[in-house]
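User: Hey, my collaborator sent me this sequence without any context and asked if I could get a structure. I don't really work with proteins. Can you help?
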Amino acid sequence: MSNPPVTELQSARIPASAASVASAPGQSRTGELFQLLRDGRARTRAELAEMTGLARSTVAARVDALTSLGLIAPAGEAFSSGGRPPSRFAFQPSARVVIAVDVGATHILVAATDLSGRVLAESRVEMEVSAGPEAVLDLVVGLCRTLLAQTGRDARELAGIGIGLPGPVEHSSGKPANPPIMPGWDGFDVPHYIQRSFDTHVVVDNDVNIMALGERAFFWPDVDSLLFIKVATGIGAGIIGGGLLQRGADGTAGDIGHVRVPRGDGVLCRCGNYGCLEALASGPAVAVALTADGVPAATGEDVLELARRGNLKAIQAVRQAGRDVGDVLATCVSLLNPSVIVIGGGLAAGGEYLLAGVREVVYQRSLPLATARLRIVQSMAADEAGVLGASRMVVDDVLSPASIEALLEKA
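Assistant: No problem. I've predicted the 3D structure and written it out in structure-token form, which is a compact way to encode the shape of the chain:
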């Protein structure tokens, strides 16, 4: 496949700080105009002028500027009642490519997407995050290069790289903050390390946060209050409130894995406390409990395989894990009143057993008003929730009004 022409957008690196800069008074509104076209619908200059209240000449100039960046392109002609039919313009997701990375406790999934989040190619490898930041990120860099080659794209066409990590992250710096299962990662400058190989925008966040972004963007776009619960090697929640991801003051919002649960007395968690949800309901914890009950299981996947084969003890163990998660979520429902709770992660792949336990407790213990319209569902994005969210995180940064203005100033 031959490489497409490199436009001004493709050759210009977006400053990492641009996405966080609010539009200043008097600044060109080209970036704001572009937001109207991000939905993919083709519109004429006249339609854009009517929507914005801007003069047609102003809209025409801004459309020309966005076209020069490669972000929009002509998309046919509108009906004309007389004279030359007006041209329509639409967002061009293929203008740039995004690399999305989901680093789990035992795996790395890397995908190349376009600016709409459509996955162009992906690669998954098994690797322990405990191998350390250099080993993991060197592998990530290698996979990035491979995917760019597979998709026939050049590194100059990168809009950015988004990375999810299985631990707390200081989002403003991209540095992990005391991650319990990531020895050697604390305070490591992940964006700088990646930028030694790729001169592009790099954003990093907790893996459950990006899963929440991905699930909401692609499957629940009209839901403004959503919880994404990952039940795997660890347990965490991504919180969408008012349509926005809620990270909290220090980026640890949603760390429900270390909330104490009623039946946790005497169960030691790796965080040093007793009775944490993660110590009872995570994949490894359920495997340990099942083994102690006479059914050998080394991992959460082993537990799920036993459940799929109809092993009653395995089914009961997964359902009990759901009840434990439900104990914590019942409090979350009272506190946050979400519209949707999405259950994802490795242990959720077992189907209805985990969800049945969650629903049993949440609907029993929460007030009827809080659960009257509450939906508790399995993740539809499944294994791709992380990379979809990482892509969306990058796109929202680099296509923000401030970032578009920064590109226009540089062009």
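In plain terms: The chain is about 40% helix and 20% strand. You can pass these tokens on to your collaborator as they are.
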